[in-house]
Amino acid sequence: MAGNVFTDPLQLFGFSFVIATALLQLILAPKEYRVYLMNRSKPTLAISLTFFEWGFALIFLALERLVLTVFGDTNLGYPCAYIAIVFSALAIIFLNLFAFYATFPNQVKKLIIPSIFLSIIYLIGVFLSSIATGPDMEIVFQPYLDIVMLFTVLPLFLIPIIILVYYSHKMKFRSAPHARRSAWLAIAIILVVLSYIPEIIGPPALIDYLRGLYMIATIIFYFCFTRFIELRWAEKIHHLYICLADKGTCLYDHSFIEEEALECSLVTGFISGISSLVKEITHSQKRLKVIDVEDIKLLIEHGNKKTIGILLTEEIYKILRTKLRRLLEIFEEEFENELDAFSGYVSPFKRTKKFVERIFVYKEIF
Question: Which of 7, 42, 149, 261 is least crowded, fewest Cβ atoms below 10 Å from its Cβ?
């Protein structure tokens, strides 16, 4: 039996990373799930479930280490290990789903079949290996599990790595941001492999050192994922409006899609009116930030000179709000005199088009 996790510095090092990573993932999982509820993005749901399952797998892994090394209770320790394995298998499936939805969404049903098949074989192999276990679990259990890991879990990890690397290569000249983030996501999965495989099949001397890779992989996943999803912002925006907050007068509007847009004054008048109504009802100076009408969202930003920017979009992306805020800053700086002496004449604001084309372009996302 290994030494006590709290008295062995190396074990404590690895144990701390497991706990910290589990907590981080269980914080990020509901955060991303709330985002999914807003935009119904399947990659968002997949990454949220990946964090949930992965976080619970690490929690039970920590419990297994705790009861085995501190209390010496194999009756409780080994079931915790099995539960951790089940959660980790589910996490790998959802990780595969994320990779497929983020790269080749139209082929998900075909691509996920091998992943599900391998996961089932993996869990069956773990179950059969445990049946063969004698009093000393590690002597009998280990050889069987080594074979199971080699032919199931390793391919399960290789599938999304290959998909992401291939996608990164294909997008290298079409979209450099997509290519970079795909490559980093593949690197993150490789880090998971380096930390997860030794967890089951050894060598034991490396396990505690490698557990720190869980945290690094989680951080890469989260930041690359949020950037990866928002790369699609250009496909989601429909129309832009800029108006005066107090009067609702439309100063400028711009369409990003080829379809008939709503009358500018109707939209800006509505936003101005409902913003005032919200303040009256709530008796608060807090500003209306978004209106969600099923498939269409109205992102609203307020400028410093009583202007309001409105984006009609399909998704609530942070990058869109950042771009809208930046546009308002430039708009108010460029037209400071016209806004101070506004008399209803909107022709000078037509120059806003060049600022829109500068800010709302793909190459300026990052």
Answer: 7
The verdict on 164 and 225 lying in the same domain is: yes
Helices and strands (H, E) in the chain, number of each type? 14, 5
Pairwise CA distance, residues 261 & 241, whole Å: 11
Q: Is 3 among the domain residues?
A: no
- Per the listing, tokens 């997509």 go with 178
Q: Tell me, yes or no, whether 213 and 290 share the same domain.
A: no
CATH of the domain at 347: 3.30.450.70
pLDDT tens-digit profile of 247-299?
Answer: 778 889 888 887 666 677 777 777 777 777 766 676 666 677 888 776 788 88
CB of 335 closer than 8 Å to CB of 249: no
Looking at the structure, tell me whether residues 253 and 153 fall in a common domain. Answer: no
| 51 and 39 belong to one structural domain | yes
Largest CA distance in the chain: 89
218 & 316 share domain: no
Beta strands in the chain (DSSP E): 237-244, 250-255, 290-293, 296-302, 307-313
Structurally, the chain folds into a number of domains equal to 2
Supply the range of the domain harboring residue 150: 9-231
Does residue 1 lie within any of the structural domains? Answer: no
Please check whether residue 236 is in contact with residue 313, taking contact to mean a CB–CB distance below 8 angstroms.
yes
In a shared domain, residues 209 and 291: no
Cβ atoms 164, 225 nearer than 8 A: no
CB 221 within 8 A of CB 288: no
Q: What is the pLDDT of residues 98-145, one digit of tens each?
A: 888 888 888 888 888 988 898 888 888 777 766 555 444 443 445 566
Distances (CA, A) of 11 to 54, 60, 211, 293: 20, 16, 10, 52
C-beta contacts of 99-105 below 8 A and 24+ residues apart? 99/159, 99/160, 99/163, 99/164, 99/185, 99/189, 100/160, 100/163, 101/42, 101/43, 101/46, 102/43, 102/182, 102/185, 102/225, 102/228, 102/229, 103/163, 103/164, 103/167, 103/182, 104/163, 104/167, 105/42
- For residue 4, being part of any structural domain is answered with no
- Specify whether 129 is located in the same domain as 113: yes
Helix, coil or strand: residue 240: strand
Question: What is the pTM assigned to this prediction?
Answer: 0.66
